[in-house]
TrEMBL record:
PANTHER family: PHOSPHATASE, SAL3 PHOSPHATASE-RELATED. It catalyses: adenosine 3',5'-bisphosphate + H2O = AMP + phosphate; 1D-myo-inositol 1,4-bisphosphate + H2O = 1D-myo-inositol 4-phosphate + phosphate; 3'-phosphoadenylyl sulfate + H2O = adenosine 5'-phosphosulfate + phosphate. Pathway: Signal transduction; phosphatidylinositol signaling pathway. SUPFAM superfamilies: Carbohydrate phosphatase. CDD domains: PAP_phosphatase (cd01517). It comes from Arabidopsis arenosa. It holds the Pfam family Inositol_P. Mg(2+) binds at residues 71, 478, 480-481, 628. Its cofactor is Mg(2+). This is 3'(2'),5'-bisphosphate nucleotidase. The keyword Chaperone does not apply.
Length: 691
């Protein structure tokens, strides 16, 4: 049976279930409502809706086996004291089915109803087809006569492929900016979506053509609307809203109706974080997730990972749910930013320990003749080793995120691999790296006592073999950028970025030898006091810097406002002189000699106004690795700068491990960009260079 046929059956089942719920709501009796063993309310509509959907799917899908994962079971209804309630539910189901011509003459007993309800006992899982049903989502809202929903989704091999949702109290017309209070007329919506086909809405009560819907196009959080459930206030919701700059009070709605409203642009953000760690049932999110995603939205956990519906009745997560638009998602990467900052800070701590006692035996050349040190390999474990922690809230949050960042959960694009470390003769060096990593992790209270073997170290390094690409989420890591500077005791950086659908949305960079106060114009050498910076940025939120020692609050930084090229400072790497750099500088009228810095520290310095120009034109067709620029690019652009190739185009990180360009890199300010592009273009033509 095709998905179109299954979608048709699902729409019919949900529409009839909504019809039953409307009939119950018209004359809701005290005896129609009671509490289950977990103190959550349940009504005859919950049971009746589940029975109707189960029976309709069975009849419409004919020879197809029906595996149903649903909220209710018949345990309470099979008790002697429930006979009257069961009889009422049976009549409701009979009348509802009889209202559809194709079911008019179908006999139905109380046992048929009980068995139909109990068809919902499936456990789901990663294999086969499973229907996921929330018979009445938002029972409290239903009882109060407010918003509720009936959600049905189809899971195929662990992935949601279609979803249907009835919202009987939701107005047909978009209520963006309003409170979603039901109007007396034109109320009742049926939303549906399937993979690759978009999301549609039509009337529940009249035969109307479906209308395609899309999420809001708002990209300014200050103008966004915020949904949350009718529960005890969750403090983190307000904290996140404040950080985003959302000014409006949250719109409170029960049930998956929030997903439906967001899918058509009634609001932009829905957060679901609970006060206590508790499992989330898949039926509370399955239909809503595909309805939002097919409308162009995003549904993730707090770490930015898609929800995993393949583990049975409960989502494989314990950290909160984020539902928003593609444009606003990067602003909500709070959990990922916390994890990245902690990971990079620990990595920097490790590198500093190595640099204190760096011996020549700790430096050797890889097969490509580039230097590598113990720190290059050791830094991977600061980010990926599994940890245990219960001592503090920060440690708890970190532990939760680390569990998401284990190798089988992450895609990591990184510089190093273990080929040289696995060779005979490297045993002592590998033991030294393992000890170094153990000591670094032990310096963090939350990681004390974590066992670590040399095999753990090797496997952790090799988790960086991802190829990246244009789809999905990929972390991009340079464990020590500027190894030559590191060896000399000068500037180097640890850079970590997050790539989502080919775009860099988050970056964190540690510059352990960069002074907190701007000193670039004087010398590259670090002073002995107030040294060590941690830069970080997420899309749309600006760039910040704070002390690596953790003893200062983050300060927002901006690129230089200087428009006078005579006074501009020019950054370049410690390499053989690149003739075109001098040609460009001369054309621009720059008088000062270039300031030479190793690593992405140049991006960091430029982002806070230490200099105005960084050019990187390479010799001999060198291919630029994405880890050399990913973190730095977003740190610069979020500080108001520009990062582009020689033609003025943004860098393309979506093609794998290498940038999709060979035309050099320009990093500067918006004000100077036109002049620099002109000078670059003229210099390329004069020197007959081709990229």
């Amino acid at each position: 049976m095709s998905y179109d046929e299954m979608l048709s059956a699902a729409k019919k089942a949900v529409s009839l279930a909504a019809r039953l719920s409307n009939e119950v709501r018209k004359s809701l009796l005290v005896s129609d409502v009671w509490n289950k063993s977990d103190d959550s309310p349940v009504t005859v509509a919950d049971y009746g809706s589940q029975a109707v959907v189960s029976l309709v799917l069975e009849r419409e899908l004919l020879n197809e086996p029906v595996s149903l994962v649903a909220e209710e079971d018949s345990g309470e209804l099979r008790k002697i004291a429930a006979e009257t309630v069961l009889a009422r539910i049976t009549e409701l189901v009979k009348d509802t089915l009889a209202s559809d011509e194709s079911y008019a003459a179908s006999p139905l007993s109380s046992d048929d109803v009980l068995n139909a309800i109990d068809r919902g006992k499936s456990e789901g899982g990663p294999m086969g087809r499973h229907w996921i049903l929330d018979p009445i989502g938002g029972t409290r809202g239903f009882i109060r006569g407010e918003q509720y929903a009936i959600g049905l989704a189809l899971l195929v091999d662990g992935k949601v492929v279609l979803g249907v949702m009835a919202c009987p109290k939701l107005p047909l017309a978009s209520t963006a900016g309003n409170t979603l209070k039901s109007l007396p007329e034109k109320v009742g919506c049926l939303f549906y979506g399937s993979v690759g086909n978009g999301t549609y809405v039509q009337s529940l009560s009249v035969d109307s053509p479906p209308v395609k819907v899309e999420v809001s196009s708002i990209d300014d959080p200050a103008k966004a609307s915020f949904f949350e459930s009718y529960h005890t206030p969750v403090p983190i919701h307000n904290t996140i809203a404040t950080k985003l700059g959302i000014k409006e009070s949250p719109i409170k709605i029960n049930s998956q109706t929030k997903y439906a409203a967001l899918s058509r642009g009634d609001g932009e953000v829905y957060l679901r974080f609970t006060r206590k760690a508790r499992p989330e049932s898949i039926w509370n999110h399955a239909a809503g997730s595909i309805i939002v995603s097919e409308a162009g939205g995003k549904v993730t956990d707090a770490a930015g990972n898609p929800l995993d519906f393949s583990k049975g009745k409960y989502l494989d997560y314990k950290r909160g749910i984020v539902v928003t638009t593609q444009k606003l998602l990067p602003r909500l990467l709070i959990a990922e930013l916390v994890a990245a900052k902690k990971a990079v800070s620990l990595a920097a701590r490790l590198s500093q320990e190595v640099q204190k006692t760096l011996l020549q035996s700790q430096v050797w050349k890889k097969s490509d003749r580039s230097p590598v040190t113990a720190a290059d390999y050791g830094l991977y474990l600061a980010i990926y080793i599994p940890v245990n922690s219960t001592s503090s809230s920060q440690a708890v949050v970190s532990l939760v995120l680390e569990r998401e960042l284990q190798p089988d959960k992450l895609s990591l694009v990184a510089e190093e691999e273990t080929g040289d470390l696995r060779k005979k003769g490297s045993e002592l060096f590998l033991e030294g790296i393992t000890t170094l990593v153990k000591d670094t992790l032990a310096s963090e209270e939350s990681y004390t006592g974590s066992p670590l073997s040399t095999d753990d170290v090797l496997n952790a390094i090799d988790c960086g073999k991802s190829e990246g690409g244009s789809s999905g989420s990929h972390w991009v890591l340079d464990p020590i950028d500027g190894t030559r500077g590191f060896v000399r005791g000068e500037q180097y950086a640890v850079g970590l970025a997050l790539l989502v659908e080919g775009k860099v949305v988050l970056g964190v960079m540690a510059c352990p030898n960069l002074p907190l106060a701007s000193a670039i114009c004087v010398t590259d050498k670090s002073s002995q006091e107030d040294v060590g910076c941690l830069f970080f940025a997420t899309t749309g939120s600006g760039t910040y810097v704070q002390s690596l020692k953790g003893n200062s609050l983050p300060q927002k930084v901006r690129v230089s406002s200087n428009e006078n090229l005579d006074e501009a400072k020019f950054l370049e790497s410690y390499h053989k002189p690149i003739p075109i750099h001098g040609t460009i500088a001369k054309k621009l009228g720059i008088k000062a000699l270039p300031v030479r810095l190793d690593s992405q520290a140049k991006y960091a310095a430029l982002s806070r106004g230490d200099a105005e120009i960084y050019l990187r034109f390479t010799l001999n067709g060198y291919r630029e690795c994405i880890w050399d620029h990913a973190a730095g690019s977003i740190i610069t652009t979020e500080a108001g700068g520009v990062v582009c190739d020689a033609t003025g185009k943004s860098l393309d990180f979506s093609k794998g491990k290498y940038l999709a360009h060979k035309t050099g890199i320009i990093v500067t300010t918006m004000k100077l960009k036109p002049w620099i592009l002109k000078a670059v273009r003229e210099s390329i033509e004069e020197e007959n260079l081709y990229f």
